[in-house]
């Protein structure tokens, strides 16, 4: 009888990439996958941009990118960085350049110095004869000021001269590729050839991050598998124009989840279109939860909660799950400093007796609320053992207090003196 096949549990080993340091944050080279985000304010509006960067940082963004598209935006960068520093918000700021970055950096040296990294799009850094010159100027600024760059090719702004060249070459093949494959190759070569040119100009490979973004899930997976196999540059993952609401979350998670499972990717951004009136920080939370649910990092205690069924006619367990999730996320900035390790805690809020006790025992702290027809009591389990039964109108308050007590007791020894 043949032995059963064995399968790897968990993500594949990370692809070996060069490590890039961005304002003290390490990307690639075995460092944890880094979460980043981008503002949507007018960068020239110093107050609004500073406020949004601070919000993104508090939500957990480890790098924040801002648009630098006008002289006013470039002039605002040093003031934004200064204000953030005064607020104690020390997050590296990345400048996103298109079309005129070479001019803006030349005219605003304080901007060039204040930014932690430059993002360059090889598809629109310049056109015709000016392309190579303007790309070289941007790389020279990065060399002069000791800054890393992300060379970010994008499906929506592909280098048309390169695409035309590859189409011509494809026509000469005995078995031509389909148009999609040619476009994917153009995107990959745009990033790789630009990176090679930057190295030739004198920028160390350890200061280069690559990305090649598309808006389709299968295309993104195919592009990054190929890009990863053909280089050892650190890679930035993201589905460009992912969409709004659940569509953007699902598409980004599907694409990035596959790549991360295969060990591909050193930093990620979830490019969500915010719902009207919604906070920009949602993209940070989704990125964190993607990494945490895959077991790659821990940011905040995760709450297991049942979806509800005919046994759970009350909405109380749903309300309690929301209260608990918001409470631990709100406390995490404090716990991260005073009680390190609390982010690894697991919690369970269950709605009836079917799976409630079992799921609660698997969590560090779990509560099994009464379902339809069950006794009006809620047993609480701590590290697998039933410790107390809650009753009455203050269950939410008492359960949150138990969580706080657990954090204080379990992680107190790890606090700095």
TrEMBL record:
Swiss-Prot/TrEMBL cofactor(s): [4Fe-4S] cluster
Residues binding [4Fe-4S] cluster: 306, 309, 352, 359
Catalytic activity: (2E)-4-hydroxy-3-methylbut-2-enyl diphosphate + oxidized [flavodoxin] + H2O + 2 H(+) = 2-C-methyl-D-erythritol 2,4-cyclic diphosphate + reduced [flavodoxin]
Ranges where the IspG C-terminal domain occurs: 303-404
Pfam families the record matches: GcpE, GcpE_C
Lineage start: Bacteria, Pseudomonadati, Pseudomonadota, Gammaproteobacteria, Lysobacterales
Functional description taken from the UniProt entry: Converts 2C-methyl-D-erythritol 2,4-cyclodiphosphate (ME-2,4cPP) into 1-hydroxy-2-methyl-2-(E)-butenyl 4-diphosphate.
Residue ranges occupied by any IspG TIM-barrel domain in the UniProt entry: 17-287
Keyword Iron-sulfur in record: yes
Keyword Protein transport tagged: no
Cofactor details (free text): Binds 1 [4Fe-4S] cluster.
Pathway: Isoprenoid biosynthesis; isopentenyl diphosphate biosynthesis via DXP pathway; isopentenyl diphosphate from 1-deoxy-D-xylulose 5-phosphate: step 5/6
Record organism: Thermomonas brevis
GO MF annotations, alphabetized: 4 iron, 4 sulfur cluster binding; 4-hydroxy-3-methylbut-2-en-1-yl diphosphate synthase activity (ferredoxin); 4-hydroxy-3-methylbut-2-enyl-diphosphate synthase activity (flavodoxin); iron ion binding
Gene that encodes it: ispG
HAMAP family in the cross-refs: IspG
GO process terms (BP): isopentenyl diphosphate biosynthetic process, methylerythritol 4-phosphate pathway; terpenoid biosynthetic process
EC number: 1.17.7.3
Family affiliation: Belongs to the IspG family.
Keywords: 4Fe-4S, Iron, Iron-sulfur, Isoprene biosynthesis, Metal-binding, Oxidoreductase
Protein's recorded name: 4-hydroxy-3-methylbut-2-en-1-yl diphosphate synthase (flavodoxin)
């Amino acid at each position: 009888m043949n032995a059963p096949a064995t399968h790897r549990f968990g993500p594949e080993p990370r692809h070996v990439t060069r490590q890039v340091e961005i304002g003290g944050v390490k990307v690639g080279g075995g460092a944890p996958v880094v979460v980043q985000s981008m503002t949507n304010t007018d960068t020239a509006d110093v107050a609004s941009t500073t406020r949004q960067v601070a919000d993104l940082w508090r939500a957990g963004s480890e790098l924040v990118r801002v648009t630098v598209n006008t002289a006013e935006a470039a002039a605002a960068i040093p003031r934004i960085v200064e204000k953030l520093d005064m607020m104690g918000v020390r997050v590296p700021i990345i400048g996103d350049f298109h079309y005129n970055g070479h001019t803006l950096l030349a005219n605003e040296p304080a901007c060039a110095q204040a930014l932690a990294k430059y993002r360059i799009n090889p598809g629109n850094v310049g056109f015709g004869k000016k392309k190579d010159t303007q790309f070289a100027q941007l790389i020279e600024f990065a060399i002069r000021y000791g800054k890393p760059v992300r060379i970010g090719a994008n499906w929506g702004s592909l280098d048309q001269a390169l695409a035309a060249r590859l189409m011509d070459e494809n026509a000469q093949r005995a078995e031509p590729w389909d148009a999609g494959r040619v476009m994917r190759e153009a995107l990959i070569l745009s990033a790789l050839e630009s990176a090679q040119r930057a190295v030739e100009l004198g920028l160390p490979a350890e200061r280069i991050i690559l990305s090649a973004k598309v808006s389709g899930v299968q295309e993104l997976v195919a592009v990054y598998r190929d890009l990863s196999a053909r280089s050892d540059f650190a890679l930035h993952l993201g589905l460009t124009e992912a969409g709004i609401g659940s569509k953007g979350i699902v598409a980004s998670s599907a694409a990035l989840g596959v790549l991360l499972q295969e060990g591909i990717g050193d930093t990620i951004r979830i490019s969500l279109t915010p719902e009207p009136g919604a906070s920009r920080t949602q993209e940070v939370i989704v990125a964190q939860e993607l990494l945490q649910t895959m077991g790659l990092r821990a940011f905040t205690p995760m709450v297991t909660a049942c979806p509800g069924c005919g046994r759970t006619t009350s909405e109380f367990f749903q309300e309690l799950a929301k209260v608990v999730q918001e409470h631990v996320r709100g406390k995490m900035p404090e716990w991260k400093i005073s009680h390190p390790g609390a982010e690894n805690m697991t919690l369970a809020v269950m709605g009836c007796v079917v799976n409630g006790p079992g799921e609660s025992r698997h969590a560090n702290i779990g509560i099994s609320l009464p379902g339809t027809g069950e006794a009006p009591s809620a047993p609480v389990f701590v590290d697998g053992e039933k410790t107390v039964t809650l009753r009455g109108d203050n269950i939410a308050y008492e359960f949150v207090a138990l969580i706080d007590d657990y954090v204080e007791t379990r992680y107190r020894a790890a606090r700095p003196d």
